[in-house]
Amino acid sequence: MTTEQVVPIGSADDIVIAREAGRDLAGQLGFSLTDLTMIATAISEVSRNMTSYAGKGELRLHVESRNRRSVLVVEAVDQGPGIEQLEHALEDGYSTSGGLGLGLPGARRLMDEFEIRSVNGTGTTVVMRKWAPPRV
Q1: What DSSP designation does 12 have?
Q2: All structural domains of the chain
Q3: How many Cα atoms within 13 Å fall on the side-chain side of residue 89?
Q4: How many helices (H) and strands (E) does the chain have?
Q5: pLDDT at position 9, please?
Q6: DSSP 16-74
Q7: Strand order in 113-119's β-sheet?
Q8: Which terminus of the chain has fewer Cβ atoms in its 10 Å neighbourhood, N or C?
Q9: Which residues pair with 47 in a beta bridge?
Q10: How many angstroms separate the CA atoms of 103 and 19, rounded?
Q11: Residues 1 and 63: beta-carbon distance below 8 Å
Q12: What is the rounded CA–CA span in Å between residue 17 and residue 2?
């Protein structure tokens, strides 16, 4: 199984590559088709935020093991301007770009765990995790 994969994000084409990489790794872990779609959507949302607000960044994919279960980890990292009003950015409908404001809140709902760190002028890191189904 892939240990860690890093996908540079700078364009819409890169978002497609990141989605596919996430789906492939999640597929190896035995996620359902529904879960694969949710994971790919969450990856799209955080990757799109990178291109829209930071211009570029990278998406890191790897697997952790916790309590003898696998966890898919998706980490989106950029060195952009950061998110000034982080608490608002996590609310449905809040957008500084005129969009629907569903990106970060939507990604948070689609994954099992969601963490975000953002420092003005330094960048943003989003870490999302999805627990793989138990192996029988």
Answers
A1: H
A2: 4-131 (3.30.565.10)
A3: 20
A4: 4, 5
A5: 98
A6: HHHHHHHHHHHHHTT--HHHHHHHHHHHHHHHHHIIIIIS-EEEEEEEEEETTEEEEEE
A7: 4-9, 57-66, 69-78, 123-131, 113-119
A8: C
A9: none
A10: 15
A11: yes
A12: 16
Answer whether 108's CB lies under 8 Å from 46's CB: no
Is the model's pLDDT at 102 over the cut of 90? no
Token pair belonging to 32: 């359902």
Write out pLDDT tens, residues 116-132: 999 999 999 999 999 99
Q: Residue 35 has which token pair?
A: 């879960």
Q: Compute CA 59 distance to the chain's CA centroid, rounded to the nearest angstrom.
A: 7
Question: What average pLDDT does the structure give for the chain?
Answer: 89
CA distances from 56 to 7, 50, 60, 77, 104 (A): 11, 6, 13, 9, 17
- Average of pLDDT values for 12-41? 97
**Would you state the pLDDT for residue 37?**
95
Quote the CA–CA distance of 120 and 101 in Å, as a whole number.
Answer: 20
Helix, strand or coil, per DSSP, at residue 83: coil
| Two tokens, residue 115 | 């963490």
Q: Which residue has the tokens 């952009």?
A: 80
Q: Which residues pair with 72 in a beta bridge?
A: 63, 130
